[in-house]
Fold these 2 entries.
Entry 1:
Amino acid sequence: MRPNSQELKRKSSHDTEREFGGTLGAIGIPIFLPLTVLFLISTSRSPEASVLQWPPSLPSTDQLWDPLALVVLLCWIALHAFLYLTPLGKVSEGLVLRDGTRLKYPINGFHGLCITGVLLMFLVGLGAPLGYLFELLLPLAVCAIAVSFLFSVYLYIRSFLAPSHALALGGNTGNPLYDFFIGRELNPRIGNFDLKYFCELRPGLIGWVVINLGMLMKEVELRGSPSLAMILVNSFQLLYVADALWNEEAVLTTMDIVHDGFGFMLVFGDLAWVPFTYSLQAGFLVVHPQAISSFRAAIIIALNGIGYYIFRKSNSQKNQFRRDPSHPSVARLETIATATGKRLLVSGWWGLVRHPNYLGDLLMALAWSLPCGFSHLLPYFYVIYFTVLLIHREDRDERQCRTKYGLAWDTYCRRVPYRIFPYLY
Ligand code: NDP
């Protein structure tokens, strides 16, 4: 059922519930997080690599700016925009929008990753100094932050030309700072080019594994060969990114695409936060090499494998169930009915905890940090931050599901009492 115009007006009015600390968060986060990115990169390469060191080791201005970084970043975004537009892969439809239409999306991110891989092999074969990414990382992060701000301003301004049904319900509060931060327009497009979908999994996510590869090449330059710790970090994270792109279609039903507007929060997250903080372990290993035994490596590989198995199986089970509940792989699972007509799984992975996919993701996050040893806290930044992010995300999703499913959601919570960690949380 489509909401009528009165409902839309009510939802988009100034009393819309605000997330991420409301106006205060909308002012603080865009200042604090970019500074955190720069702080983490510069700390990870300092000899102490101490997040508790005071005053923190701050980079000088000439370490922050290099025109080459801007050229590299813009060429990188242009390459992926080009790959997005190539007629490779299939085209899928998103969920039904408030105006009853469905948008079409190219499913060719994995092709983009493979083509990028071939191009990089070719460039490295020609002698391109990929290890120079280590030196270029801070200026690249500065440019990505600047591009995120400018792009978010563009998105905010253009959102005033969009019809009301194209606005995200939570991003139209009338408070410019909050709306700029959270995003007003749900699916901003230039022609058929979907700006949010493009940023979600391509320049930043593929950029992350390329930065990792750059750190590996820097290690080769410095020490003659890559360390086992560096190979583990590179392989685990490449598997994660390749998996996300292989299953790209699943992003069409995520909160980011379906619910959130496209504003600074997602733009910065996609273009700056993910590539530059998720690659911290690889950067750390360049300056702080770690020797790990085969036994420890085997335990870490097993942990990553278990995490990946839980993550992939649970995500696939839900996606399959949502696409076709009568499919043999999910038809026998126990479910409960909801007033919306959709059913909720209460057995299988989704009967273990209410977010088994987050559990798997967190086990992998831990496995990515362990190759960096126990001498520093900094390489564990990702797993600590990610735990906070997923607990907060779970809470947001929980509230949305309670609004959507009402009593049926309460029944599900009684049947499956733990949110992420069995018997713990
Ligand atoms: P989820 O895939 O967890 O989806 C949540 C939705 O699933 C709910 O809104 C509901 O939607 C549906 N659902 C919940 N419970 C049930 C049930 N019992 N039966 C059937 N459907 C149910 O959402 P996310 O987008 O948060 O996560 C997707 C993946 O991305 C996760 O693996 C997560 O770990 C990962 N992720 C990674 C990040 C990173 O930075 N690396 C950041 C964020 C997420 P409905 O009922 O409407 O279908």
Entry 2:
Amino acid sequence: MADSAHIWANDILARCDELASLSESPSELTRTFLTLEHARANELVAGWMVAAGMTPQLDGAGNIVGRYDGTVPDAPALMLASHLDTVRNAGKYDGMLGVVTAIACIDRLNRDGLRLTCPIEVIGFVNEEGTRFGATLTGSRAVAGTFNIADLEARDASGVTMRDAYTAFGLDPDKVASAAHTDKDIAAYMELHIEQGPVLERENLAVGIVTAISGATRMRVELLGLAGHAGTVPMGQRRDALAGAAEIIAYVEKRCSGTPGLVGTVGWIEASPGAVNVVPGGCAFSLDIRAETDRVRTAAVENITAEIAQICARRGLALTFVPLHDAPSSLCSENLMLELENACAHEGFPTMRLPSGAGHDAMALAAICEIGMLFIRCTKGISHNPAEAVLAEDVEAGARVLYHFIREFNYAR
Ligand code: HGY
Ligand code: MN
Ligand code: MN
């Protein structure tokens, strides 16, 4: 791995490429929770952790956790982490860049024979995205002690529960909570991540410092009308679940437009029975509402769920809301922002403070410790898309800033 004279970015980018080859599909990058590809990614990362002088282990939630001891054995640890799972047809850097860069920094400490007073834990979290089961932040919430045991009953598209998937993966679903840390175990949490937005590129900055992470509400909405013959049921007598969903989606877009920082998304939809000549009797879709402040988000969720109920009543559709995720917006620590600003100044990278519209594992850790996030510019702000890209010099900048932050980290909070 890198040393002070050598650039880091080539090694980091090569490792992101290696991880990207571990996909459920030969034609795109999709690596979801508790799959063979997830196990292979953990193994690959564990090997890099060993080479960097860490001791890796799989925790009860399926996270890969590498520990680099400090000179004060039982001091609270500095936690550096991000996630190793992806959305469908993903980019190579969302999550993975943060884990690989953290390992690169430990590798350099190890090569230089350096130790902090506090231990360092590097974690590759599972299931930040929620792609397979809908429930999200599973690994980081397990570490924060807030894992929702009800999530074990969530089912994937083929009806497999998270509980059964854990068993098939070789982990005891009743031991997920054993991954929990307390606030005594962690001095601070730091996550390097691509921005997944256009701001740093617009401001021509390689790195940015996150001030807050938008809260998010996710749910599955199920509508039940009446299937019928497309040729004989008059328009005025239909209980068309898909047409109802269309009216709802148009409302979500209208309600969430025009309020800065508020966004609403219907990411997937399925209609049944799904035949060209049948009025759809059933429809299910996802709803993802986010805002920088909880007040704006909860007001939008209230308006949207009330409007959905009215539309369904008028159209004679039965309605079920299935909650999937609810996370308050999380503030990043002023101390950690200042320490990141010092590191940027020391390494000669101008920076700015900015909020994150995307959710991150840091939101879960905010429950038990101070959190900080360092953003790396990504090309055109594109993410959750195979066109996701980073510049080598920005990866280099991120690694140098993170390394200096680690070197100067004063764990006596
Ligand atoms: O959805 C998000 O914001 C994150 O990428 N999981
Ligand atoms: Mn993501
Ligand atoms: Mn991410």
